[in-house]
Write a structure and sequence with these properties.
heterodimer, A: 314 residues, TIM Barrel, five-stranded parallel beta sheet, 10 helices, 41% helix, B: 313 residues, alpha/beta, nine-stranded mixed beta sheet, globular
Chain lengths: 314, 313
């Protein structure tokens, strides 16, 4: 086990080279709906229990199924209304289970990125080869079902190994060269994209995917009231919009439709979306679009600045 | 030590759900249901009446809201008992005031042990749903099938004999089931179940003994969930129920009828400082003319009448 993660360098938030988003936008705003499949009878993993009760663990399983049967459609209507194309963090087995949802995502020209095969199959305990196979399966399945070359990765149920980012970058390169496997949502250290070092030395970045704004963390872990979540989203946006005058920032709302699309929570989410998209200098984009822009225009200056601030070490 | 290679086998990776209890479809795609009188929102007010034993065994887990301290946990035992002695009478007064047709999900042991309470509940003309034997008799994966069969039969038969009418619905303690629970329910003549919280409308559910109707009884909106587990204020509970109500009404305008399933507990909302919150919700609901406020069975019957044979899945 390592004491430090060691995949990015210390790089202070102030005095960075300025990020310029298209059309002078201050904030690149993206919404990442997690479209997940949790299994009714998942296999045992000694490192993490899938459910608190013996299978069938209906309390957890059935509310997640609510997301698929009821919630995604509500969110699609809402994102359509406010002109937001989602960037879907997908439990890839959903391509087989619920292809109708995948079709609706494709019709909307949304992005799909990998969130593993099932959200009840953890990375913990997998050998490097097993994890590589699982990631390869996910990228290939996304391509087979949608023609998309998967750009991003969020490890299933946020379960990681020391090689998760390396493997994702490598499998992306193996299958589609630089067109796949170039951003990670698994790091929460910054409000701007940052370069990440991976084993194959590919141009690879971390994309801000805020856990603090993640509805499951907000509702299920921090037990926040729905209206207050709306307030948090607005405050989060206000500050990033303000700071974005000087250098472009990224705001992400990661959602789960078994949380945010419950009837008692829709209003707060809609108010926040209306507020954010009602600002003129917002670039409403997908994860891939933000990552590509950053890689094309800011990645090299970022690397140079990081090296400079760390005494030219890298 | 790596996991067994079979950890990445996916035997149920296929079209539809990873079980065969019902077919996969999305709420937004189903044929719209129109409630009687052209109402848009069916409101089912479900009061759960529960007995939490002092000598809780906690098999296979400690039931939420049950005993939490070393034996004898007088604190939780009596706080829960409060609901059946005091809180419920505040509920009944509120139901009468706002003209609510109540549904009572009751533990059969509680019905057996408190005939006066049962009589008062019956006097409301409300519906009774079997809520299992008591809150420490859980239905769970790995439970002996014969033991569970006896438990279901005893719970259903006891309540039927006591209330003198067919008990048609079932709510498992903690909404927990074994793999066999739905089959055992159907075998005992139960017609609908409230445990699977995956929809905002009823739907049909397969068992070995013919179909059940699933009546999803929202957990996320429960008083014990919002106030008890999430530690939100009573006012926040009222606001959330109203927001849910408004949203479902709005959705029903263009997608067909919806159902608001509100599960409440007299040990929670029956406290003096909380009862006005229940009254605020009932007041809000009862004012609205697009609301069809009825018992669970009335919703099931109307749903089946309108969806008929297509509801077979």
């Amino acid at each position: 086990m390592k004491e430090t993660l060691g995949v990015y360098d210390y790089w202070p938030y102030h005095n960075r080279p300025r990020i310029q988003w298209p059309n002078g936008a201050r904030v690149a705003f993206w919404v990442a709906p997690n479209i997940e499949f949790y299994e009714l009878d998942p296999p045992h993993n000694p490192h993490r229990k899938a459910w608190p009760q013996p299978s069938p663990a209906l309390p957890g399983y059935t509310i997640r199924d609510y997301g698929n049967r009821v919630g995604h459609r509500r969110q699609m209507d809402l994102l359509d209304k406010y002109g937001v194309r989602g960037s879907v963090s997908l439990s890839v087995a959903l391509c087989e289970h619920h292809p109708e949802i995948i079709d609706m995502v494709a019709e909307r020209d949304w992005e799909i990125f990998s969130h593993g095969i099932y959200n009840t199959r953890y990375t913990y305990g997998l050998s490097e080869e097993q994890e590589r196979d699982m990631i390869r399966d996910s990228i290939q399945s996304i391509y087979r079902h949608t023609g998309q070359k998967c750009a991003g990765y969020l490890a299933p149920a946020l379960s990681h190994s020391e090689h998760t980012l390396d493997l994702f970058a490598e499998v992306g390169s193996e299958l589609f060269g630089d067109e796949a496997g170039f951003y990670s949502c698994d790091l929460f250290h910054d409000d701007q994209p940052t370069p990440v070092q991976v084993r194959n030395h590919k141009r690879f970045i971390s994309m801000p995917y805020s856990l603090e704004m993640n509805d499951t963390i907000v509702y299920a872990v921090n037990k926040v009231e729905p209206r207050h979540y709306g307030t948090m989203l607005k405050r989060h946006f206000d500050r990033l919009y303000e700071e974005g005058k000087d250098s472009g920032t990224v705001m992400c709302i990661p959602t789960h439709n078994y949380q945010v699309s419950c009837p008692h929570r829709m209003r707060a989410f809609e108010e926040a979306l209306e507020y954010i998209t009602g600002h003129s200098d917002v670039w409403v984009a997908t994860g891939r679009e933000i990552a590509q822009h950053y890689l094309a225009h800011h990645y090299d200056t970022a690397l140079a600045d990081i090296a400079n601030k760390n005494g030219g070490a890298r | 030590m790596s996991l067994d290679k079979h950890y990445l086998d996916y035997p149920m990776r296929r079209y539809g759900h990873d079980h065969d209890r019902f077919d996969w479809n999305m709420l937004a795609d189903r044929r719209p249901v129109v409630w009687p009188g052209n109402k848009r929102l069916a409101v089912w007010i479900n009061t759960s009446l529960q007995f939490y034993p002092l000598n809780q065994k906690g098999i296979p887990f400690k039931v939420p809201n049950g005993m939490a301290m070393p034996y004898p946990d007088l604190r939780h035992y009596t706080l829960r008992d409060y609901g059946n002695r005091v809180g419920i009478y505040r509920f009944l007064k509120a139901f009468a005031r706002y003209g609510i047709k109540p549904t009572f999900a009751i533990n059969s042991q509680l019905a057996l042990d408190t005939p006066y309470l049962l009589e008062q509940l019956q006097a409301t003309g409300g519906e009774f749903i079997c809520h299992g034997w008591n809150m420490d008799h859980l239905h769970y994966g790995g439970q002996d099938k014969h033991e569970e069969a006896e438990l279901v039969k005893r719970s259903v038969q006891t309540l039927r004999e006591l209330v003198g009418s067919p008990v048609r619905g079932w709510l498992s303690p903690a909404k927990n089931q074994s793999w066999h629970t739905p089959d055992l329910l159907a075998d005992n003549g139960i017609e609908f179940c409230c445990d699977w919280v995956n929809d905002d409308m009823p739907y049909r559910f397969r068992t070995e003994h013919g179909p059940l109707t699933m009546m999803p009884l929202s957990t996320e909106l429960e008083d014990q969930f919002i106030i008890g587990q999430n530690l939100h204020s009573e006012d926040a509970w009222v606001e959330q129920v109203k927001d849910a109500f408004d949203f479902l009404l709005q959705e029903a305008e263009h997608q067909g009828g919806r159902m608001l399933a509100l599960n409440i507990h007299p040990w929670m909302l029956g406290q003096p400082h909380r009862i006005s919150s229940l009254e605020a919700v009932l007041d809000y609901i009862s004012r609205h003319d697009a609301v069809w406020q009825v018992t669970a069975s009335e919703i099931v019957d109307e749903f089946l009448k309108q969806t008929g044979s297509e509801a077979q899945s």
